[in-house]
Amino acid sequence: MRILIATDAWRPQVNGVVRTLTSLARSASALGAEITFLTPQGFPSVGVPTYPGLRVALPNRREIAARIEAAAPDAIHIATEGPVGWAVRAYCRRRGLAFTTSYTTRFPEYIAVRSIVPASLTYAVLRHFHSGAAMTMVATGSLYSELGARGFRKLGFWGRGVDTELFNPHHPARLDLPRPIFMTMGRVAVEKNIEAFLSLELPGSKVVVGNGPQKAVLEQKYPQARFLGEKTGADLTAHLAAADVFVFPSRTDTFGVVQLEALACSTPVAAFPVTGPLDVIADHPVGALDEDLRRACLRALSSVVRSSHAR
């Protein structure tokens, strides 16, 4: 079976969508599927004023059609609602082709944080985008319920997993920092709410792994925190395994695959009780959720101490 996946999120971006899609590609052949990606590569692009450092593709109709027809897919999936996604949607609608979509990013909340555009308007646009799909795939039950309440229809599940050959606790990095180490990882941008973590009074050390437009500002504002930049592959795994608690301060992620990656490295997760953490952590003894993020961090840390004493 040949599957075409259209996505605006692609390398060199480092985010959960890119990691999910690349993991899918690695495992697809074992399931008898051949995946071709239609990405921004090869198209001209422009910067996004409200997202420093981010560029979006400017696809043209003829090239989109040529790439789809060259792939000769049996199924088409649109992973993102960006220009590539809209162009592939238009191609399918013109030709009466069925396609599926996935809801992976809270664009309404992201845009509302950075502009005066109300989330309600963006949700209306996204409802229109996904209304043409045979199914819109979501990662969790709470997101399914939330989108259903917002008028999205034909929803289905597409779960998430983690590569346990890569993400494991066996080779932690040697971090010469006072313990305990509280770590967060991901794009350093306002919508990730990293300042909610950095502003906490916590023992030991705070570590931020990742790059992004807010990094320089936060480094200057919180000089006691350690900003280690982007990590990939085994180096990323080693840092996750070296932390005592992984802190996930985002309130706008639809899932947060990095939570699974941290847990695979035997690092408990502290987060707000919102979509994503509610589905991954809930009341399981692998972390702590609380509207008081500091309390969640300390409860997650206490679970590490109890586990250590039990051994």
Give a nutshell description of this structure.
The chain has two domains: 156 residues, Rossmann fold; 130 residues, Rossmann fold (3-Layer(aba) Sandwich). The model has no long low-confidence stretch (mean pLDDT 92).
How is this fold's topology laid out?
Blueprint: E1 2-6, H1 16-28, E2 34-38, E3 45-48, E4 51-57, H2 61-71, E5 75-78, H3 83-95, E6 100-102, H4 107-114, H5 119-131, E7 136-138, H6 141-149, E8 155-157, E9 181-185, H7 194-198, E10 205-209, H8 215-221, E11 226-229, H9 233-242, E12 245-248, H10 257-264, E13 269-271, H11 277-280, E14 287-289, H12 293-310
Parallel strand pairs: 1-2, 1-5, 5-6, 6-7, 7-8, 9-10, 9-12, 10-11, 12-13, 13-14
Antiparallel strand pairs: 3-4
Total number of domains: 2
Biggest sheet, strands in spatial order? Answer: 2-1-5-6-7-8
Shape assignment: globular
Strand runs, count: 14
In the CATH hierarchy, what is the superfamily of the largest domain?
Glycogen Phosphorylase B
- Please name the CATH architecture of the largest domain: 3-Layer(aba) Sandwich
The CATH class name of the largest domain reads Alpha Beta
In percent, how helical is the residue content? 25-40%
Mean pLDDT score:
92
Secondary-structure element order, N to C: EHEEEHEHEHHEHEEHEHEHEHEHEH
Radius of gyration: 20 Å
Provide a count of the helices: 12
What CATH calls the topology of the largest domain is Rossmann fold
Q: Give start-end ranges of low-pLDDT stretches.
A: none
